Amino acid sequence: MWKLNKQKKPSKFRVKDAKVALWLSMFCLILHSIPHFAQSPDLSCKVSLTTNKKPLSQFLDDLSQQCALNITYSHKHISDTMLVTAQYSNVPVKTILEEILPAFQFRYKLIEKQIVITPNQVDWPMHVFGYVTNANNREMLIGATIFSEDYTNVAISNEYGYYSIELSKPITGLKVSYLGFKKKTISVDLTDNQRIDIALEQDTSHLNPVVININDWQMVRKSPLGYHQLKTKTVQNISSSMGEADMLKSLSYLPGINFYADGSVNFHVRGGDHDQNMILVDEAQVFNPSHLFGLYSSFVPEAVNNLNIYKTDIPAKYGGRLSSLIDIKIKEGNKEHFSAGAQMGLTSGLLRIEGPFLKNKSSYFLTLRRSHIKPLLQNAYPELNELGFYDIYAKTSFRINENNKVLLSFYRGGDNMTFTDEETSLGGFSWANSLLNLRWNHNHGHSLFANSTLVLSGYNYFLHNSFRQNDYWNSSITNITLKTDVNYYLNASTSVHFGYQLGLNTFDPGTYHSDSANSKVNIPVVPRHFTSEIAGYGSVEKKLTPEFSFQAGLRASLWNNHGEAILFSYNDHSQPIDTTFIPSDTIYNQYFHFEPRLRLTYKFNDKQSLKASYTKTVQYLQLLPTTNSGFTALDQWLPANHYIRPQIAHNFTIGYLQEIIKPGVFVTTEVFGRLLRNQIEIIYNANTILNPHIEQELSFGRARAYGFEFQINKEIGNLTGWINYTYTRVLKEFATLNNGRQYPANYDKPHDMAVLLNYPVGNRVTLHANWAISSGAAFSEPGSFMYYRSKQVPIYSEKNNRRFPTYHRLDVAALFRLNKPGNAFDHQIKLAIYNVYARKNTISINFNKTIDDNGDIFIPNNELEMRELITTQTFVSAFFPSLTYVVNFR
Amino acid sequence: MKQQTGIYFILFSILLLSCEEQIEWKISNYEEKLVVEGLITNERKAHPVKLSKTVAGLNKTPEKVTQASVKLSFNENVLTLIQNPANSGIYLTDSNFVGVVGPDYELEIILEKDTFTAQTQMVPVSNLSPVQFSEINDGNYYQLEYEPESSPSFTEHFYKWQDIQNDSAPFNARQTYYSLNTIDFNRELAPETEKIYFPSGTIIIRKKYSLTTDHATYLRSVLLETEWKGGLFDAPAGLAKTNISGGAVGYFSAHAVTTDTTFIE
Questions:
Q1: Rounded Cα gap, residues A57 and A98, in angstroms
Q2: Pairing state of beta strands B249-255 and B173-179?
Q3: How confident is the model at residue B169, as a pLDDT?
Q4: Which is higher by pLDDT, B243 or A228?
Q5: What's the CATH class of domain A18-119?
Q6: Is the pLDDT of residue A707 over 90?
Q7: ipTM value of the model?
Q8: N- or C-end of chain A: fewer Cβ atoms within 10 A?
Q9: Which residues in A lie closer than 8 A to residue B194 (C-beta atoms)?
Q10: What DSSP state is assigned to residue A638?
Q11: Half-sphere exposure of B134 (CA within 13 A, CB side)
Q12: Residues spanned by CATH 2.60.40.1120 within chain A?
């Protein structure tokens, strides 16, 4: 936007050609941003000239020529009707400018070795807005901090890299920072609102930029409570279970987040259950982010631009889960030039290509990952038929013009694990997630940014009992969502966010298909569920005083259950006594909820701040808690309906943040609590598969979680990393479980500590280590055993009354760059060791097996032998070394 | 649905590089309870009700309950069960007792000041399906193939492939298969179970027991904690829902039984 200065505007001033003025002004700005190597302007240079009604612009050009000065001005402000009549003989330029310019309501400034002519009066405040990108590939930088040179005004680039900062007084520069990139100062001379797209250069001073989860002090103060940003560079150093970097599993090193077990992708945030985490990939829900039961997650750092984590203070634009939001953005692709990469590890390989269709306007990105586990195991396990997984990430972006951009992204990930049984029939698991997403970014001037999204997502999973007989169990979820989100930057102290979301869901809780002619089992038919959700929201963020600010929001959500459906009525013994058929065009059940959000921030000084927040969240979908194992595959999602009320959480957080010792070292402490209502557990020995009366297998209750987190984060210097400690308790209460007494959740791990360190050795080697320790997970220990039908049967008296042994593990990694930094051909080797000291971390304890003379452990089956049973523990691999080769071309 | 026990578990073990080892574990909060295992059938014989106490750890010998008064009521008849042998904790009906389909059978156990009661019915049993087995080791051995039945039942298989000196155990092996009319991933994904292979010439005696829906549910919960435990997606641990009141555990059940004998050639 280029607006006219209407205050005290001299009558001679007239805009003849706004476009020319705009381009010249932009040109001037570009000139400002280019480093100059000329000498400083010599204002003592003496000039002799005589003019008679000469246009001011020509007069300035003459001055410029005589003294070889770089005088910059905008034709928008200096018109040909401004005429100068003067006579000077051997007079310094400085004197001439000081005499002439005030007569036209102008002044001059020295900026970056230039003499810049600007009007005396402009309308304040003004806005600078635009996009922040990586100068190397024009990838959007999410969460970059833009602040005025005096630190009084701050803006953070949003999830599309867009920023808008309001300035209330003249400044000469904007500072821009983003961790892993060189800080940049942009010279500005505002006479009007200006769009400045900022490209930051990567910091190659270290092989790996500083480890971060909070990227700037300014951002920390402005960000929500319990917020982290995990960068791909950080994650690439961290080894996960098979030595490969994994975006999701790296969350375990953040405070307040713990994973249930090794080899599991189920994680718990501040006492929330694992189905209470919303995982979004480019705005689309992912229902099962795991591969191979959870050994890997679906998200590789090579495909991810950014991962934001909201642990309690979830913005009003997001809803649908109680405890956290994991917001993942896939890379858009290199808009500058073609680049490619490949990676080969022990268990999987990856290929990446990206580049521009039109330079700086459109791009494509494609990453393929495929496992190669089967060939490694084929000889040892000939019964394996297929064993592996794949991921496809594709994205393209088109910048239609300065204000409009379209993005299309696609993800598909799947698993296939089948075997050959003794009759050469095949069985096994397979599942796939699919996402297709179309987005339109639109910015209207300096103050409004809107994003509209259309999402199609699906999750489909199978348990194949026999391929030969075509016997399989199948369940699926499909979702269509349309939403629009608007950011309106009202002024420096106020911004407003609002939007809507419409969603349609179809759930197939499970269908069994069999071509077996002799199947005698009566297989029930479970009807599908059809639902829709309409949500609207708004929030305002306002800085009331330099010290005090707040963000208040409200989300309203309406949930509908649609026909076709069959509703059952039950007697007191949970037996169905009547059915009601609901036709397809009927809404038979609705829930409506308001979800308020409030965050207060008080800044004591530049080093200390205090925040408090309250968030009410509502969840209409739940994962049936059919297992305690922590592994995923046969998950069943159930929607809220007339039997199952939506889950509700009241989340409270208080946080204190301080920068200590020296810049770059932060201490954060947050105290949190959740009150969770309408929680769901299954009853003892529930029958949840293919059960049309599943609601009779559920128990409803409540839970509460509370605790605190403490983190020291060092972001600057050679040794970087963090140490955190979290204390969390999660207690549940269900009338029909544990005799109505309160009990700890199985993921209740009171103490959790993690240390993560990075250290560069020279320019080519980076050493990495991470160590984690936590309380063992809770489990139900039998209070006694009984003999029944020749079996020793455990009898439980308390739920989750004991814990597994303490969990701890050390991983190390070394990253060797094989070329000089900055080469177009870049290749690295990563050597990692998972679980260095081979700790056997328990994932289950069982009391039902026996051991033979060969040391083989199995379940006895001959009821006449009465073998002695033993107690066993299961643990995931101890000590796993891995080697990964990475190559990138650019 | 055909059971694929063991192979999924192998798959799982490969994937997770998981290991299982024996550990020492002491139960921390032992709670003593009365265990009742009462079973009547349509066979003419003395039917037992076994009473014992729960034990504080695996493989411990349960304490027999020898001071109880046990009564069985049905159709206004009341039978007092006699402990035999003495102090065995096994209480028997008279040897001419035959259970039938129809009446409610009520069990009453009085132990010191406590009374425990249970009620059950007998449902008819369907015929046995033909025995199915497959060759193992190029025909030197065989393995039983079990297809689940359409109605709830369990079938005991007694194997005899060589003479046994000890008369108290006239068979080489006994294996029970359950048809609970449910589809359970815990069963499909159960850990590896001991295989029973038998040679040619083996005699297999099968004894099929009918099951009420409640007893099938109970047996399922027992299996979830025993044969099906330790697999991919173990169900949360839980108490089996007994039909015995008063805080006792176990089950009192009635079954119609059918039997046959097969000679494997």
A1: 16
A2: unpaired
A3: 62
A4: B243
A5: alpha beta
A6: yes
A7: 0.93
A8: N
A9: 858-862
A10: E
A11: 7
A12: 126-200
Q: What is the CATH number of domain B34-120?
A: 2.60.40
Class of domain A290-889: mainly beta
Q: How many CB pairs under 8 A join A and B?
A: 281
Dist. CA A786–CA A282, nearest whole Å: 53
pLDDT of residue A21: 40
Q: What is the mean pLDDT of residues A560-586?
A: 88
pLDDT interval class at A216 (50, 70, 90): low
| CATH class (in words) of the domain with range A126-200 | mainly beta
B247 shares contact with chain A (CB less than 8 Å): no
Q: How far apart are CA A603 and CA A605, in angstroms?
A: 5
In contact, A158 and A439? CB cutoff 8 Å: no
Query: What are the residue ranges spanned by the domains of chain B?
Result: 34-120, 124-239+256-263
The CA distance from A377 to the nearest CA of chain B, in Å, is 8
pLDDT tens for A828-873 read: 999 988 889 989 999 899 999 999 888 888 899 888 888 899 999 9
Q: How far is A304 from chain B (nearest CA, A)?
A: 25
Q: Environment class of residue A50 by beta-carbon count within 10 Å: exposed (0-12), middle (13-18) or buried (19+)?
A: exposed
CB proximity under 8 Å: B 107-146 to A: 134
B224 membership: H or E segment, kind and range = helix B213-225
Q: Given B10, B175, B229, which is nearest A861 (Cβ)?
A: B175
| Average pLDDT value for chain A | 84
A842 and A776 in contact (C-beta within 8 Å)? yes
Q: Which of residues 258-287 of A touch B (CB under 8 A)?
A: 262-263
Put simply, the chain B residues between 175 and 234 with a CB less than 8 A from any chain A CB are: 175-176, 181-185, 188, 190-196, 217, 220-222, 224-227, 229-230, 232-234
| Residue A847, pLDDT score | 93
> B-chain residues within 8 Å CB-CB of A794?
225, 237
Decide: helix, strand or coil at residue A647. Answer: strand
Number of helices (H) and strands (E), helices first, in chain B?
Answer: 3, 16
Mean pLDDT, residues A421-450: 83
Model confidence band, residue A417 (pLDDT cutoffs 50, 70, 90): confident
